[in-house]
Structure formats: C-alpha cells, structure tokens
Amino acid sequence: MRRREPLGEVDLATFVASVALASPVMTASGTAGHGAELGAYIDLASIGAVVVKSLATYSWAGNPSPRVCPVPGGMLNSVGLQGPGVEAWLSDELPALEASGARVVASIWGRRVEDYEAAALLLAHAPACVVAVEVNVSCPNLEDRSRMFAHSPKATGEVVAASMACSRPLWAKLSPNTSDLLLVAEAALSNGAEALTLTNTLLGIAIDAERRAPVLGAGGGGLSGDALHAVALRAVYECRAAFPACAIVGVGGVRDGLGAVRMLLAGANAVEVGTASLADPRAVSRVQAELVSWCQRHGVKAVSDLVGDANENWRQKGRR
Question: Is residue 264 part of a domain?
Fold first, then answer.
C-alpha cells in the first residue's frame, strides 16, 4: 500500500447553518467563563468561537458547594448556572471578548418561557461579534412541575420560538436524558432553531461512603468528560441521519483532535471543547492543532469533507 504524503494546508472553515466560522473548534458553554478568561492562554480570535456560560435576565447565585467532583471517566458538576445576568454581561464582560477579536456565541437559560424571551430581547442589539445565541433548554420548567424543557417537544418548541426575539441565529442545546431526543430536536428545528447543539450533560450522582451522603451540595449533578463522549456521538449520529440538512454542533468528551474528528464524522459541522478546558486552559487550541495534524496525516484537505462521513459510509453498506 502506497504511503499517503502529508498535506501542508488544511482548510478549517465551516458553516453552522448561516454562521460562518474560521474553525470548527469552539469552547463549550459553562467551561470558559463569561468573558475573555481564556484569553490569557490562547488567542481567542484563532478558534471558531467562544461560547459563554449561560445567562438569565437576572443575576443568579447558583447551587451550594461543593459544586464539582471528579468521577471515573469525567466529572460531575452542579454549579447551577451562576451568572451576572445578560445586562451586566453586555456591559462588563462582552467588551473584552469583542476587543480580543473573538466570535461570540451567547447562551441563555430560564425557568419559564418568558424568561427566555426576555433574555433574548436583551441580546437583540448586542454587538456584531455575537454571531449566534445558544438556547440552553436543559433547565427546570417551573410551569411543568420542574420537568426539563428539553424533555418535552412542546416546551422546547415554545422556548425556541420565544428566543427568536434575539434576532440572531439560534442553536438549541439539547439534553441526552430523554428517549424523545429526535422528537425534541424536530420541535426545536421547526420552531426556528438553525442548529442543534448535542449534547448537554448526563444526570448523575456521587456518594461519599464515609459520610454516607451525596458529595455535591445540591445532591446530583451533570456528568461530563470522557464518559459522555459515546453518548454525544450517538446523539449527533442519529440527528444527522434524521435531519440530513440541519446544522449540528457536537459537544461531549472532546479532549483531543481525534475526539473532534469523531464528532465531525458522526455528522457535526463544528465541535465544542468543555471539560478538557478545566484541566488545561489551552485545550481548545490544542484540539484545533491536533485536528489539523490528523487531517494532514490522512490527506484531508478540508474539515468540511469529514462531516457526516460515518453516516454516509454506513448507508452505502445498506445499514442503518
């Protein structure tokens, strides 16, 4: 077998629906702060985008400590969406991100449908550096016995429709903790979402055997890291097969270039690096560099050529 010669340049450009990105590698909401914190370690303008921690219309103190703990294969977190609120973020945090040259994806959350609409309205006149809004529907719906919006196609559709008030492209960030993922995804897309972000964390709990009690202050939390990767890949793969024309952002356990490649092959147009950044604040740049190296070794000239290839190969074999 003739050895394939490495290539020099790799075209990293991608589109997430209407949003053009110079690279498919972004930070993940909740792991890169609200502002330019990672700018001390990486060139924020060199990555696809900075996806900031989710914001409500109001400031929110979050959950009691302890809020994070390591578990086999990853970590549990119960930070509880602590944040300053959209208005404070716009005035205090966004200017540093804008000055860095970063493309920014804002993330919003709420406890009622009208909370999302109010947060979206506050973003309607944000600077042009805010290229999209990610709608975090993995939140308790106080009007539905605190059931997660993301577990209900109807509630998800209502939230996405209300969030259209931001006048920005919408990405719906969905939960893997439901057997109705495809129905929820369809509701998000049919109500205005340009893209699906797949996925949020898995529900989990850690027990302190000595205290005979949960480790985290709020009891349970969200599982992220390596243990989530296969679950997120499956969500991306199934949604790409079900909605071949939609845009997808893959997130969950991407800690190296190979993890990013897998997400792209499963059907993601772009990826987000989350938990890896907590251990290594340079992780997102490293993942991007490793993605380029993988493409060079495998003769891939453009990362867009990888998108959905695993799905396509499976279909060509007559298997689903």
Answer: yes
Q: What CA–CA distances, in Å, run from 271 to 141, 150, 160, 287?
A: 27, 20, 21, 10
> Which residue stretches of 170-256 are H helix?
181-190, 226-242
CA separation for the pair 46, 9 (Å, rounded): 16
Q: Is 0.85 topped by the overall pTM?
A: yes
Binning the chain into helix, strand and coil, the percentages to the nearest 5 are: 40, 20, 40
The total number of structural domains in the chain stands at: 1
Segment 173-229, tens digit of pLDDT? 999 999 999 999 999 999 999 999 999 999 999 999 999 999 999 999 999 999 999
Measured between alpha carbons, how far is 162 from 297 in angstroms, rounded to an integer?
45
Query: In whole angstroms, what is the distance from residue 97 CA to residue 94 CA?
Result: 5
Cα(169)–Cα(20) distance, integer angstroms:
11
Asked whether residue 75 is domain-assigned, the answer is no
For residue 317, what are the contacts with CB-CB under 8 A and spacing of at least 6?
Answer: none
Give the domain CATH number at 166.
Answer: 3.20.20.70
In whole angstroms, what is the distance from residue 43 CA to residue 49 CA? 11
The residue from 129, 139, 166, 295 that is catalytic is: 139
Q: 140 near 203, Cβ under 8 Å? A: no
Strands 130-136 and 104-108: parallel
Catalytic residue at 69? Answer: no
In a domain, 194, yes or no: yes
- Compute the distance between CA of residue 238 and CA of residue 271 in angstroms, rounded to an integer: 16
Domain that holds residue 119: 14-63+82-204+223-316
Token pair of 151, please?
A: 């577990």
Residues of the chain with pLDDT under 70: 1-8, 144-146, 313-320
For residue 213, give both structure tokens.
């009690």
Residue 217: inside a domain:
no
